[in-house]
């Protein structure tokens, strides 16, 4: 039974036992969550190479960056639509491991299948199916962990589970960049995600874990009843609004950061050596030689001048026909990369390393500070994540305006601040709602933060980049960071009362 200390804060001396199988469930769910975020960022990591694939995009497509952003949104739209449906099924007692197994299987098949897409709309459809699968996973996994671990351990457990966000994302960036560099093709990176099918099989074999007993008369009759309850829960609302603002920023940065760094740092030059390599590829090159007539067309461009990505693309546009762009543009960019200029694989590896170290540091520090403050300061969790978001703003501005490699250092500190919410934020959501509606509450949170966050931010950033540039698009994100930090700090005043109400309901249920 949970215990309350004076003032409604969970008693740190509470020794409610952990059910058998809880730790193995945490380990499996953590591993699945890693694959979850690996899959999400594989797409982001290969955007610079994907946009050069003429089977997916026309070379002269004026909306190419907007459409790239839509690919991320396609997954998230399906994800946020299916999450509430699955959350409602969970609240009605359906087998959790069966739901999880189906979700993991569907998204693994869809993600791997993305690598076989032959048109933009086929790729769009496979990304939607990925969202369907992940929608069956997200709310159930978080609710299961919140249910099987007592309040004294919940913050640490949810922080461990959500460490997969930075670590899995980083691994996805590295896999996408390195594998696509090795094979000179973006498709192979998606095929790695077929490995998730094994995790889905393990889910089907797991035994169900016990659920907390619900208090009499507290189980809502419908999804809309839960929605009405949560709308009156000020801590839930303020946490959700703040997470939405930060998710808008993180989602845009995650999708466009490889492309942003690629455009800022990578340089290209058409030289005689590059022409020779295109005409007669080395024996270990995974590409075919360009036709002699195309080499002849490219020869006048071989002036050796080093150009930025937009400049080099503009230089090639009048030279190549639509068919030639479709077949050979990616190979030309690959071979014409200037000596010493970072490749897509190197950029993704650097960003992935920063994401792992920064994200893990943020999660560990914020969880430790949050646990220290929660019994001493009213609303301590909210203050931790709010201050972290505000401190991310100057570091993020440094990322945009400092020269590389100093910009990477600024990126590290920005990531630390933006990921401060990962542990304490999800703990707030778990602690302020009754166990019988947790899955639905997590699903509603998923719906809101994605619908108004990272569903719309990638295409918005892409549209602004098409009209102006990525630098301008990225600058706008500082406003959402400030908004998120302020909202969280305001929400601190309500946390104690809302936590007390939720824990009191649990005590009542366990006493019945």
Chain-wise SSE layout:
Elements: H1 22-45, H2 47-50, H3 64-91, H4 96-114, H5 120-135, H6 138-148, H7 151-162, H8 164-183, H9 187-191, H10 196-205, H11 223-231, H12 234-265, E1 267-268, H13 272-279, H14 292-298, E2 307-308, H15 309-316, H16 322-335, H17 344-373, H18 380-401, H19 406-418, H20 422-431, H21 438-454, H22 457-467, H23 470-475, H24 477-491, H25 495-511
Antiparallel strand pairs: 1-2
Helix pairs in contact: 1-7, 1-8, 1-10, 1-12, 3-5, 3-21, 3-22, 4-5, 4-10, 6-21, 7-17, 7-20, 8-17, 12-17, 12-21, 12-22, 12-24, 17-18, 17-19, 18-19, 18-20, 18-24
Question: How would you describe the overall organization of this protein?
Answer:
This protein is mostly helical and 512 residues long. It has 2 domains: 19-265 and 342-511, MFS general substrate transporter like domains (Growth Hormone, Chain: A), CATH 1.20.1250; 272-335, no CATH class. It has 25 helices and 2 strands. It has helices at residues 22-45, 47-50, 64-91, 96-114, 120-135, 138-148, 151-162, 164-183, 187-191, 196-205, 223-231, 234-265, 272-279, 292-298, 309-316, 322-335, 344-373, 380-401, 406-418, 422-431, 438-454, 457-467, 470-475, 477-491, 495-511; strands at residues 267-268, 307-308. A two-stranded antiparallel sheet has the order 1-2. Helix 12 runs antiparallel to helix 17 (344-373). It is elongated, with a radius of gyration of 24 Å.
């Amino acid at each position: 039974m949970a215990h309350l200390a004076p003032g409604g804060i969970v008693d740190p001396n509470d020794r409610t036992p952990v059910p058998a199988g809880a730790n193995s469930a945490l380990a499996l769910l953590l591993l699945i969550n890693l694959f979850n975020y690996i899959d999400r960022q594989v797409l982001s990591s290969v955007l610079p190479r994907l946009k050069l694939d003429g089977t997916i995009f026309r070379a002269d497509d004026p909306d190419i960056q907007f459409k790239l952003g839509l690919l991320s949104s396609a997954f998230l739209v399906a994800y946020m639509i299916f999450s509430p449906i699955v959350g409602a099924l969970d609240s009605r007692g359906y087998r959790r491991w069966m739901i999880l197994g189906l979700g993991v299987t569907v998204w693994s098949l869809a993600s791997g299948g993305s690598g076989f897409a032959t048109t933009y709309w086929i790729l769009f459809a496979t990304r939607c199916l990925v969202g369907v699968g992940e929608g069956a996973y997200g709310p159930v996994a978080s609710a299961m962990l919140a249910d099987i671990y007592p309040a004294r351990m919940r913050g640490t457990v949810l922080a461990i589970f959500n460490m997969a966000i930075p670590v899995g994302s980083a691994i996805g960036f590295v896999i996408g960049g390195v594998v696509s560099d090795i094979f000179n093709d973006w498709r192979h990176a998606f095929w790695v995600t077929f490995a998730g099918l094994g995790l889905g099989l393990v889910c089907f074999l797991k035994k169900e874990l016990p659920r907390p007993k619900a208090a009499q008369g507290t189980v809502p009759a419908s999804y809309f009843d839960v929605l009405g309850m949560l709308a009156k829960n000020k801590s839930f609302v303020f946490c959700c609004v703040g997470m939405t603002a930060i998710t808008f920023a993180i989602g845009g940065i995650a999708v466009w950061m490889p492309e942003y760094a690629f455009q800022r740092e990578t340089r290209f030059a058409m030289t005689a050596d590059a022409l020779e390599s295109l005409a007669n590829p080395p024996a270990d090159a995974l590409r075919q030689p360009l036709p002699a007539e195309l080499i002849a067309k490219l020869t006048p461009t071989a002036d050796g001048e080093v150009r930025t990505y937009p400049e080099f693309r503009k230089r090639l546009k009048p030279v190549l026909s639509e068919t030639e762009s479709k077949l050979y543009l990616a190979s030309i960019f690959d071979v014409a990369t200037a000596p010493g200029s970072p490749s897509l694989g190197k950029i993704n590896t650097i960003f992935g390393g920063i994401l792992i170290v920064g994200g893990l540091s943020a999660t560990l520090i914020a969880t430790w500070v949050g646990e220290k403050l929660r019994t001493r300061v009213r609303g301590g969790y909210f203050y931790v994540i709010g201050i972290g978001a505000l401190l991310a703003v100057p570091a993020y501005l440094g990322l945009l305006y400092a020269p590389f490699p100093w910009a990477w250092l600024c990126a590290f500190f920005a990531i630390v601040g933006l990921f401060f919410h990962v542990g304490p934020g999800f703990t707030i959501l778990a602690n302020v709602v009754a166990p019988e509606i947790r899955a639905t509450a997590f699903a509603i949170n998923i719906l809101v933060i994605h619908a108004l966050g990272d569903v719309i931010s990638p295409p918005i950033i892409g549209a602004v980049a098409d009209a102006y540039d990525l630098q301008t698009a990225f600058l706008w994100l500082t406003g959402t960071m400030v908004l998120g930090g302020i909202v969280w700090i305001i929400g601190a005043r309500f946390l104690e009362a809302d936590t007390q109400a939720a824990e009191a309901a649990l005590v009542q249920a366990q006493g019945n």
